[in-house]
Design brief:
It is a multi-pass membrane protein. Keywords: Cell membrane, Membrane, Transmembrane, Transmembrane helix. It comes from Noviluteimonas gilva. The chain has one domain (about 25-160). The chain has a two-stranded antiparallel ribbon. The protein is built from seven helices and two strands. It is mainly alpha-helical and about 160 residues long. The radius of gyration is 22 Å and the shape is elongated. It has helices spanning about 25-50, 50-55, 60-85, 90-95, 110-125, 130-140, 150-155; strands at about 100, 155-160.
Length: about 160
């Protein structure tokens, strides 16, 4: 066959699948599912240990707040640790078909997820008064064009559709 100098190039182009960002509504519903799941465990435990009674009497000091915050994070790790380690998804994200990914689309390590994405938000949220403001800012950053919350910016992650 003779080469035609006027023929269009015939090189094959590799198929490129573009990653699609998860919607704000999907992320909200996933977070709501995760929150309800943790509350089903934590609220009865807090009643059983007398936390709410002590809080009503004003007997909850900083030490107890820190201890319950630590315990809450441990419960989070127990409940969400396996799906996060396996697929970078919480149970809520699994239900909604979305996942946490690094900016290049790959799966972050479990250490990155816990130490950069979840722990800083937990610690910041525990700061009296300022923690509430920081938590609100963290969540409201989702209204940026890249739909990344503060914890995504810290960890270098994004949330994508599967």
């Amino acid at each position: 066959m003779e080469n035609n100098p006027y023929q269009a190039p015939s090189a094959s182009v590799a198929e490129h699948t573009e990653e699609v960002l998860a919607g704000r509504g999907e992320r909200f519903l996933a977070a709501l599912i995760d929150t309800i799941l943790l509350c089903v465990i934590l609220v009865p435990a807090m009643f059983a240990t007398g936390y709410f009674e002590q809080a009503a009497r004003g007997e909850v000091g900083i030490g107890k707040v820190v201890a319950y915050g630590f315990a809450g994070f441990l419960v989070f790790l127990i409940v969400q640790g396996w799906p996060l380690a396996q697929s970078a998804q919480t149970w809520g994200k699994k239900v909604l078909g979305i996942r946490i990914a690094l900016l290049d689309g790959t799966q972050p390590t479990f250490g990155t997820l816990i130490l950069k994405r979840y722990l800083p938000v937990q610690v910041a949220g525990a700061i009296p008064v300022l923690g509430l403001v920081l938590s609100m800012i963290n969540v409201l950053l989702i209204f940026r064009s890249d739909r990344r919350c503060g914890h995504d910016l810290i960890a270098g992650t994004q949330v994508l559709k599967n």
